[in-house]
Amino acid sequence: MTADVHALIGPWAVDAVDDDERAMVERHLAECDSCAQEAAELREAVWRLSDATIADPPPRLRARVLHAASRTRQSAPVPEPEPERRPEPKRLRRHRGLPRLRLALAAGALAAVMAVVGGLVTWSVMRSQEPGATDADRIAAVLQAGDAEVGTVTAEGGGDVTVVRSEAMDQAVVVVSGLAAIGQDRSYQVWMVEPDGQVSAGVMDPGERSATMLVSGLGDAELVGVTEEPAGGSEVPTSPLVAGVSLQG
Amino acid sequence: MPALEQLLHSTALGDEQAFATLYDEAAPRVYGLCLRVLRDPAQAEEVAQEVLVEIWRNATRFDARRGSAGAWITTIAHRRAVDRVRSVQASGERERRTAYGEEAGYDAVAETAAVRLEHRQVRRCLQTLTELQRQAVTLAYYGGHTYRQVASLLGTAVPTVKSRIRDGLLKLRDCLEVAR
């Protein structure tokens, strides 16, 4: 059977297999390093066949594609498979190509976030408390800040994480919404990843899948990330990110 | 082509300007390949649009350690074009404009001066394949045929076609690497 699958690597590299065969080959490649190596080399040769077919598209296609892209949300990066079950808690991996905050030009973007926030003000964590204002007021102030930037990612397993950050206020609102269901013995935990490590920004209630939080004192944090942890949270992350939003401008 | 990798990484960060540049670099390749496989400008345009928007959406998933940006982009384009051909075939609508001998059609693709050199290199390398290897590879890649269809088009046994495709690609790889 392995021999049969192996004989399909050539046809697979030129998409000359059916869907079942494609799935079979790709399962095989995941388990066989030397086969994956050969497959990658064939792919590098195959794509050069398209050198011979280059042709100018109709000019109108450019505007259509760019317009469609501007209205299309980008996918969350695929988390790397864990090579081994981590013996030690370790630093959150930095992902290349994380969606980053973008200037929220339209008031509409903030209105949409606020609509979500409205029903979800469940808790907040602040590094420095200011007396007077309520949490809801403070959150609203960030969302309405003139320099507010917003970034949203789809989490692994479903749900969204949205970060709205005001650099001038040095605060961010993190909205976690509808993450994958977890048991009562697990909590989602939000982290700020800084150049020299990560700081817990808050632990959600066990089993809870949605929450809104205000984070103050962002400092030089590079990333807001969410992990799944034992109920009550961990000192350092013990599992890969289910979502991450880069704060780098 | 490190520039494409860089553009993909910037695109993955939501940089629309980088994506516009990536479009200019990659769209002729994506569109041209769709046109070659689909043989219909309207469908090629439609599929090319889907492919290019998919590149925007999934740029976050491009991993340079697993292959070049050119291979990543072209693989998405070819797979989409082939999927379209197969679904049209399945619904029985595909016009059989040409059957056997389709690969001769790549002579007709308009060349621009900028791509002529690369184009010539690939064609020269294709000439290093045996006749059967070349026919099997080009019918599969440019024609969008499965290896079973290729076997029936060439009147050759299925296992032979599978190995000719692989052998042909290995030869192509060696020739292109030497030429680089």
Features:
heterodimer, A: 249 residues, 22% strand, extended, B: 180 residues, mainly alpha, Rna Polymerase Sigma Factor, Chain: A, Arc Repressor Mutant, subunit A, 8 helices, globular, transmembrane (chain A), Anti_sigma_zinc_sf (chain A)
Structural class of chain B comes to mainly alpha
The CATH homologous superfamily of the largest domain in chain B is named RNA polymerase sigma factor, region 2, helix turn helix motif
Mean pLDDT of chain B: 86
Name the chain pair with the biggest interface and residue counts per chain.
A-B, 53 and 77 residues
Indicate the CATH architecture of the largest domain in chain B: Orthogonal Bundle
Q: Main β-sheet of chain B: number of strands, strand sense, barrel status?
A: none
Quaternary:
heterodimer
Helix/sheet category of chain A: alpha+beta
Number of domains of chain A: 2
Q: CATH class of the largest domain in chain B, please?
A: Mainly Alpha
Radius of gyration of chain B: 17 Å
Low-pLDDT windows of residues of chain A: 82-98, 118-130
Report helical residue fraction of chain B. Answer: over 70%
Order of helices and strands of chain B: HHHHHHHH
Question: What features would you describe in this structure?
Answer:
The complex is a heterodimer of chains A (249) and B (180). Chain A is α+β, with helices and mostly antiparallel strands and 249 residues long. Chain A folds into two domains: 2-52, no CATH class; 102-246, no CATH class. Chain A has seven helices and nine strands; from the N terminus they run αααααβααββββββββ. The longest helix of chain A is centred in the N-terminal third of the chain and has 14 residues, at 33-46. Residues 82-98 and 118-130 of chain A have low confidence and may be disordered. Chain B folds into two domains: 1-97, RNA polymerase sigma factor, region 2, helix turn helix motif (Rna Polymerase Sigma Factor, Chain: A, Orthogonal Bundle); 101-180, Winged helix-like DNA-binding domain superfamily/Winged helix DNA-binding domain (Arc Repressor Mutant, subunit A), CATH 1.10.10. Chain B is built from eight helices and no strands. In chain B, α6 packs across α7 and α6 packs across α8 (158-179). The longest helix of chain B is centred in the first third of the chain and has 23 residues, at 16-38. Mean pLDDT of chain B is 86; it is low at 93-114.
